[in-house]
Amino acid sequence: MKVKNICCIGAGYVGGPTMAVIAYKCPDIKVTVVDVNEARIKAWNDEDISNIPIYEPGLEDLVAEARGRNLFFSTDVEKAIDEAEMIFISVNTPTKTYGLGKGKAADLKYIELCARQIASVAKTDKIVVEKSTLPVRTAEAIKSILDNTGNGVKFEILSNPEFLAEGTAVQDLLNPDRVLIGGGTDEDGFAAINALVEVYANWVDREKILTTNVWSSELSKLTANAFLAQRVSSINAMSELCEKTGADVSEVARAIGMDSRIGSKFLKASVGFGGSCFQKDILNLVYIAKSYGLHEVADYWEQVVIMNDHQKRRFAVNIVKTLYNTVSGKKITFLGWAFKKDTNDTRESAAIYVADDLLNEQANIAVYDPKVSDQKILSDLNYLETRSEAENREGIEVNQDPYEVCKDAHAIAVLTEWDEFKGYDWQKIYDNMKKPAFVFDGRNILDGEELRRIGFVYKGIGR
Ligand code: UDX
Ligand code: ADP
């Protein structure tokens, strides 16, 4: 079977870039990305390409080329489902904030709504592809909804987890380490898997396209994210020990990274990992393990999140302690708010939690981030419900000018590793700050020696 029409439900950080790359690489396939969020779709269709709602290096060029040719963005979900042979589900699956599994399990209500909508609209056989990160055995639930509420048409469910990292999404999609496709093990299952393999084979080497059963595929995604997050928590745990013993965590990371069994990537100590996936996926894993009575397995993985929370809190405490045990009324400038560089995504960003802790200490926070809007920063804080919106508004100020934002600050905290921070005129920044002028480098990106020479009190992570 050759796929001619693809529909993707969900025009977010996963659906948007993934479909842009499929459309760009497969001009013969019509790709329609739908979303219930009208403002988001409007932004994807904006004539000024720089207004598309997701910032990813290289994405604008791909969208510019494919949009209107074979890539379309629409709010007409039903029409797109009806026309497609293959439907990707890329809706959000946040951690549940209520009821059973609160704070741990993934909230599957958006997924279920999609499945029900597909079932009610479909008049021809469909291949449904899970793209969102999902707990193991979700495919089974989707299949059950489709088979029991549909009008007799046949559905094949595939799991095709997304491994792209934000900030490098386009490169990750164009040159993936691997593409994983899980599906049914009968003839129809194989046919569906093959249909998706043929889509990717337009630009990915066939040796890099792995096919498995659907549960292995679902669990592989959670496992990959758990292992990656565990590496960050492991190096962050060592960073605290380094600070006590006089070792330098960058030197330790370099030394262990040269061991080919360990590898050098993903060993940067930081103020803590963020992003929509790591914490959610691990909590999900913990929930699944507990639900099977595997308490040791659950506790083992939960520790990765506990360590990450500790690292964020420790950064805030360190600022307070260093500033003579009080930040009340002091201006603390945050450079960066996004959870990593080259994205405007702020979900679970360490900056939010560090700001919250410092606001509790009555600090005045000033923020500069090259890609995050002031409304987003305020809404991230409001979402925590620690204090009223008015109080957050009073405690936080956002400035579009990196030099202005540092003026009269007692301390600067680097929360995101944006490259531009390294190139600033740090002498000029120093001259306009309160003295002693402190820099807390939560990403170890600045030249500490140079900053000390200028006169800063410079504190990195794990050194
Ligand atoms: C992650 C996975 O990498 C990706 O495969 C999956 O599809 C989605 O989740 P993402 O969250 O977009 O991707 O970014 P990633 O590069 O993994 O970074 C996650 C967090 O870890 C960021 O906050 C980053 O700053 C932090 N990190 C990463 C570190 O603190 N140190 C490191 O060495 C690496
Ligand atoms: P991700 O990082 O997983 O892509 P996002 O939150 O960026 O998550 O994107 C998910 C998108 O899915 C949102 O734009 C949301 O409006 C959309 N969405 C959620 N449920 C539905 C639905 N039933 N139909 C269409 N779009 C949906």
UniProtKB/TrEMBL annotation:
Classification via PANTHER family: UDP-GLUCOSE 6-DEHYDROGENASE, UDP-GLUCOSE DEHYDROGENASE/UDP-MANNAC DEHYDROGENASE
Amino-acid positions noted as binding NAD(+) in the UniProt annotation, renumbered to this chain: 10-15, 35, 40, 91-95, 132-133, 166, 277-280, 347
Residue span, UDP-glucose/GDP-mannose dehydrogenase C-terminal domain: 333-448
Pfam families: UDPG_MGDP_dh, UDPG_MGDP_dh_C, UDPG_MGDP_dh_N
UniProt keyword annotation of Amino-acid biosynthesis present: no
Residues annotated to bind substrate: 162-166, 221-225, 261, 268-274, 339-340, 443
Protein name: UDP-glucose 6-dehydrogenase
